[in-house]
Amino acid sequence: MQDNGVKPLLSDILKVRLFGFGIPYRSLLVDGTFEPVETSPQIEATELAQELSRFRHKNPESGDSDDTWAVSVPFGRCGIEGLPREHLMLFSAQQAFLDVLAKSGPREIAINPGQIVAVEPQTVVRVRAKPHMGRRVVVAFQTQDRTPLLGNAAPFTLDGQIPDAYDDRLRKGHQAFAKIEKLWTDDKSAYNLVLENFFRLMSDNLAQSKEALTIIEKARTVGSYSVVDERVFLDYQRSLIDDELLNRIRVLDDELFRFPGMFGGITTLFNYLK
């Protein structure tokens, strides 16, 4: 396990955060909707480890794009006291977008190489990117606290039911996203009501959680919400990639690998800190 002499403040903040890497689902755009490419936890673990190894050694990318898309499960968070924000950076993407459903309406945010984008509470988002030929898009994420693990984040559906199977979950989420995105043009009140109900259900499930308030207070005390330059944290998590981590991902170590996640096969690294 890495021990790179992290400054105490940086270390304290990372200990309260949810952060790591993911490789969004490979999908084909068929008749205007995303159809997931067949995969398995073992395939995703192997390819995540492979991409992180390339990322670690800064292997060059080709200029050509793949014929697939890399897409996340559309998801959102209600937020507790307007917290937390999540910061994303994408790699191995020829082009990339953050699609957002907010109370002010849908919008598309182009993500440039090296750009950090923020996911705000009270929004539903999806990552959508074109990978370089033969590569998987990598999402690096830094969430200011760990309340998403308690339910302060959820896949977006219209009925509150989340399929277990990755392909059904992905299809259902993207169908819901497309339907509500179109609803903004047809009926703005109905659009906002759908979002309000989605966030209210999440908020009701969190309302009785004393643990969530404890997590927020701890994150506030160490300064996680006050960070000005998130690049320091995104750069540091890259330095955590080593042979031990890659090997544990390859064998589907449940402390360090999960599938299906919002970003496909993911590794969360707070368990990898001393």
Written overview of the protein:
- With 274 residues, this protein is an alpha+beta fold.
- The chain has one domain (8-254).
- Helix content is 34%, strand content 27%.
- It has 7 helices and 14 strands.
- The chain has helices at 8-14, 41-56, 166-186, 188-206, 210-222, 231-239, 243-250, and strands at 18-23, 25-30, 33-36, 69-71, 75-77, 86-91, 93-102, 105-110, 117-119, 123-131, 138-143, 154-155, 258-261, 264-268.
- Strands 2, 3, 4, 5, 7, 8, 10 and 12 form an 8-stranded antiparallel sheet that branches. The protein has a 6-stranded antiparallel sheet with strand order 9-6-11-1-14-13, with helices on one face.
- α3 packs across α4.
- The longest helix has 21 residues, at 166-186.
- The protein is globular and about 50 Å long.
- The model has no long low-confidence stretch (mean pLDDT 94).
List the keywords.
single chain; 274 residues; alpha+beta; eight-stranded antiparallel beta sheet; six-stranded antiparallel beta sheet; 7 helices; 14 strands; globular
Explain briefly what this protein structure is.
The protein has 7 helices and 14 strands. With 274 residues, the chain is an alpha+beta fold.
Note the topology.
Elements: H1 8-14, E1 18-23, E2 25-30, E3 33-36, H2 41-56, E4 69-71, E5 75-77, E6 86-91, E7 93-102, E8 105-110, E9 117-119, E10 123-131, E11 138-143, E12 154-155, H3 166-186, H4 188-206, H5 210-222, H6 231-239, H7 243-250, E13 258-261, E14 264-268
Antiparallel strand pairs: 1-11, 1-14, 2-3, 2-4, 4-10, 5-10, 5-12, 6-9, 6-11, 7-8, 7-10, 13-14
Helix pairs in contact: 2-7, 3-4
